[in-house]
Design a protein that fits this description.
Length: 159
């Protein structure tokens, strides 16, 4: 007497099929993980770039404000230190430190950020159009593209 064993097309996975399917799953998982890591690195780079751009914007806004009221650039200014002098003799100094740019102003001034972090500019003082002591060039090279901005003192008002 014969027993019925069910349809003949049912069969189990062979060892070779199991190994191949596990290999394909591992490959897909590895590619997905690599994509995730690359995406996170790109996000971190963009956040760093945005932070640097924010620091650049903060520094330039402060410099523009202070230069509008400055009468001259002090003689002791260097590539790492900018000292602005107002018509009344008050001074504002920008100094490049390892942490960033340190700004010190006249007494009684409204609070400003003491340090703009992550930015290390260089100051230059070209004599543009015979106006020595009235032009400041600010440059920095963090990141891929070096940047440079030339700012002009406008009047001899108060800082």
């Amino acid at each position: 007497m014969m027993r019925y064993l069910g349809p003949r097309n049912r069969r189990a996975l062979t060892l070779l099929e199991l190994v191949i399917s596990m290999g394909l799953a591992t490959l897909a998982l590895g590619l997905g993980l690599q994509l995730y890591v690359k995406t996170q690195e790109a996000i971190d780079r963009q956040q760093l770039r945005a932070g640097r751009l924010g620091a650049e914007t903060d520094l330039l806004a402060l410099l523009r404000r202070d230069l509008r009221g400055a009468a001259a650039v002090a003689a002791g200014s260097t590539a790492e230190r900018l000292v602005l002098v107002a018509g009344d003799g008050s001074r504002i100094a920008y100094e490049v430190t390892p942490a960033g740019v340190q700004r010190t102003g006249p007494e009684g001034e409204a609070a400003t950020p003491p340090v703009i972090e992550g930015l290390r500019p260089r100051f230059a003082y070209p004599a543009a159009g015979g106006r020595r002591g009235r032009v400041v060039e600010v440059s920095w090279s963090e990141g891929r593209a070096p940047r440079s901005v030339t700012l002009h003192l406008r009047n001899g008002g108060r800082l």
